[in-house]
Amino acid sequence: MTRNKKALGVKFYEKDTLAVARELLGCVVCVKRGETLRRAEIIETEAYCGESDLACHASKGRTKRTEVMFGPAGRAYVYMIYGMYFCLNFVTEKEGSACAVLIRGVRSLHGEDNGAPEIRGPGKTCRFFGIDKSFNGLDITKKDKIWVEGKTREKIDFKTDKRVGIDYAGEYKDKPWRFILVNSV
After folding, report:
1. Which DSSP letter does residue 185 get?
2. Residues facing residue 29 across a β-bridge
3. What domains can you pick out in the chain, each with its CATH number?
4. What is the pLDDT, as a whole number, of residue 112?
5. What 3-state DSSP class applies to 32?
6. Residue 12 buriedness (CB in 10 A; 0-12 / 13-18 / 19+)
């Protein structure tokens, strides 16, 4: 399959959050830092579905931290956890919905011919790309500092599981809203 190297447009992100989380599997995140362009295939995502989802940051309402989530689809929502790790999310659905997809894991495309390593975990993913708070709110539909390109493969097989680290989320803690790519390169 010839991959589309155009950045995914806002229409892609305006869809249902669960659909976006599934459809991002196999797509390529591109991050430009100075003269360096780092690219990696998305292999794991989690969906966070607005104010009613008790695991979603928006469940606490609109705050300075969550303001980006309430904005238009196709923006990066970046926040810090444990005072040391950044997490990258993509805002989805219509403005005001406060939905987003967390990027939990990627497969580096550097050295594609020799079995690139997998990076698992949202903090490790951000470290791999050099993503920090300065990425929060960036428009990911333009090929500027961060964007997402189309799939690397024609057939995408995935499994679902419950999201990680949200035991506090009541009825939402066991929702199968984590999507994991299972077919090999």
Report:
1. -
2. 40, 148
3. 10-181 (3.10.300.10)
4. 43
5. strand
6. buried
The CA distance from 48 to 70, in Å, is 13
Provide the 3-class DSSP secondary structure of residue 100.
Answer: strand
Rg (CA), the chain: 15
Token pair 């993503």 is found at 131
Amino acid (1-letter code) at residue 51? E
CB distance 35 to 43 below 8 Å = no
Provide the pLDDT for residue 116: 54
Which residue positions in the chain have pLDDT lower than 50?
1-2, 112-115, 185
Measure the CA–CA gap between 98 and 71, rounded to whole angstroms. 7
**Tokens 């920090």 -> residue:** 132
Question: Among candidates 68, 66, 87, 73, which has minimal Cα distance to 164?
Answer: 87
